[in-house]
Amino acid sequence: MKLILSLFSIFLAASLSAQLTVTSTMTPLQYVQDVLVGTGVQVSNVTFNGNANYSGNQIGKFEYVGTQIDYTSGLVMGSGGVVGLKGPNNDGSHSTLASGTMVSGDLQLQATANVTATQLNDIGRLEFDFIPAGNTVSFNFRFGSEEYDEFVCSGFKDVFGFFVTALTPLGGTYNNTNLALVPGTNLPITINTINNGTSGSSGSASTCNSENGSNAQWIANSAYFAGAPGAHFQADGMTNSINITFAVVCGEAYRFKFAIADVGDSSYDSWVMFESGSFNSDAIQVSVATVTGDSSVIEGCTTADFIFVRPTSDIQNPLTINYTISGTSTQGVDYPALPNPIYFAPGEDSVVITLAPVQDNISEGPESVIITVIIVNECGDSLVSEGTVWILDKPNISINLTDINVVCSTDSVPMSASAQGGFPPYTFLWSNGQTGANAFGEVSINGPTQYFVTATDLCGFTQVDTLTINLNQALFIDSMIQYPATACDPTGAVAGYASGFSGVPLYQWSGPGANSPNSTTASVFQNLSSGWYYFTIKDNVCTVTDSIFLKQELAPVAEFTASSVVGCSPMTVTFTNVSQNTNTYNWDFGNGQTLTTTDKTTHTVVFTQSATVSLNASQSGCADDFQLNITVSKCGCTDPNALNYDPTAQLNDGSCIYPDPIIVVPNVFTPDDDLVNGLYFLKTEHVTELEMTIFNRWGNVMFRSSELTGSWDGKVNGELAADGVYFLKYTAKGFNGSVEGHTFLHLIRK
């Protein structure tokens, strides 16, 4: 079924506390008729364990709010007490003995589990007759057990079954036929046929392979296993929701039996959960989904979904359904017109139309919207399905506030608010920016101080009210004064002045000062360093507090810059004084010169050797120091390749002079075996790089070298080059420029 919820309804569902409740107080007829059965089915002769008024604990109704399963309510039966299904999942072997009317033995369960009657314990059996309105009956269920996962592939496999018997010859051949089978197979559903595909600590994989027919089938069945549903459930494992649809004959009578039992012991409970209203026959169903979970919506706030579901037996064909709208509300006035008729496309099992009531700000009281669908089944019976929604007016929200009287000023007067008349939960916004039902107000002026609070309910409806805090106080701090401290000594002071004493006031100071007292009768606090100081006055009625920041004269900072710090002797340096918060300067230039001045003037000094220059800058008895190293070097040419290289120079002053490169180019060579003039090479002086290329008369490269000592032996690829004239091209780079040239050379062989 496709269920379309608004974002608002999703938000509401997430905000609710997730929980599972299970009750076991109804009669078997109520469980079947009010919980299990939907539309198109008439039931009778309902018993549980042979009793029409069962009061035990093996059958019950569950209701669930949360996301761990997709059922919101339904019928649950167990091999022990059904209340044990409720989480948290804090017991790996939860077991509850069954109570109430008991039965012994069940031939169908024995055959399903392949056990004897004595091996079945805690049998629960629900039976009823039913007459379907259509040609199929369908229901949804989940199986969960404490025997997961440790007893998978073992002999401890609690058993259950859905057994159908035709009560009339025209009803078919059903005779205690078990419908609780793994989809698409003839395998009964147990922990050994639907699991995670792995044997438990107490089981053997060969057992599961045998019971499933093959390992491949066993693994395939794991698709129906959901695992542990979560902390809201005690079951250690649970199947996915499984749908069973079986063929019937319209109007004929059938007997349905659901039985469950422990196998081999009475421990480790198992449960089967039926989705509420899912046991139904072919018919159009109309249901309602609202954000409040009931059948009401609020004008201008929430919406409701009317959900039309058609029989699965006719799902492949298009279908048009007309419905009627009744009730006390007016379509097109109280809510926009709804589409009618509705159309099911082939393959579509449900259609949803949304009711969005209009906020008209008129007090009208609850108004109803009723949608009714009437169809005639194949037996000629008229089947009626109906859904009702109530439209509620905008609420009248009231805020509960209590005014407050205080006798002493404070910044933390507790304020609280509550609201009623709207749709909880409520949010609160106070005029001082605080949020929540509880907040704190601040009062510092005698008389009333008002705070406004806005209450907003779940639907966004608001109400504003006022809370008043009345202050009746005489004691006040009138002023705070600070006397700045010096940068070096704690010589500052702070003072506070108040009025309106009742009795003898007691003063208290606190702060970073070394002599900060716990209490004193003096309003002045002296000999302090810079920082925040807190002043408190207490009389016979109130205590008031204020604070003040004690400033400090800025500390002296000695600093200067030099026009250069590295140079050649003699080196002239100009020093610029950039000190701050100072007025007296003592210079030491490190070369025997000193200077004391009160001016921030520049000073030019000549250095013949390296020195450390120091400055002491002070003001009001506080001083700071700054130093800078001046490096003086002997300068000259430091490159050994230069003509004027000076080995005693420490710093290159750029005066180096380099010779021009010299190239001697031979024009003939005789590469014979006599080792005389057998290699062709260029003679060089003052050359650092050399490129040489030799071509034949057709421009082909005979030899190429990028090395200073490169030479040609008169061969090309190991073969002797022929006698003749060759062309030479060269480039030589030296310390002082480069030389390029080209010429001819003769290769002569004797």
Kindly describe this structure.
- The chain is mainly beta.
- The chain has six domains: 13-281, no CATH class; 285-392, Immunoglobulin-like (Sandwich); 398-471, Immunoglobulins (Immunoglobulin-like), CATH 2.60.40.10; 476-550, Immunoglobulin-like (Sandwich); 560-633, Immunoglobulin-like (Sandwich); 662-747, Immunoglobulin-like.
- Helix content is 5%, strand content 44%.
- It is built from five helices and 56 strands.
- A hairpin with a 5-residue loop joins strand 30 and strand 31 (462-471).
- Helix 4 crosses helix 5.
Domains, number? 6
Instruction: Indicate the percent of residues in helices.
Output: under 10%
Residue share in β-strands: 35-45%
Helix-strand category: mainly beta
Give the low-confidence spans.
Answer: 1-17
SSE blueprint:
Elements: H1 7-15, E1 19-23, H2 28-36, E2 41-48, E3 59-65, E4 73-78, H3 107-113, E5 120-132, E6 136-145, E7 159-166, E8 177-178, H4 205-212, H5 215-221, E9 225-227, E10 237-239, E11 242-247, E12 254-263, E13 270-275, E14 280-281, E15 285-290, E16 296-298, E17 304-309, E18 319-321, E19 324-326, E20 342-344, E21 350-355, E22 367-376, E23 382-392, E24 398-400, E25 404-406, E26 410-416, E27 418-420, E28 427-430, E29 438-443, E30 447-456, E31 462-471, E32 476-483, E33 492-499, E34 506-510, E35 524-528, E36 531-538, E37 543-550, E38 560-562, E39 566-568, E40 571-577, E41 584-588, E42 594-597, E43 603-607, E44 611-619, E45 622-633, E46 635-636, E47 651-652, E48 662-664, E49 668-669, E50 683-685, E51 687-695, E52 701-705, E53 715-716, E54 719-720, E55 724-734, E56 737-747
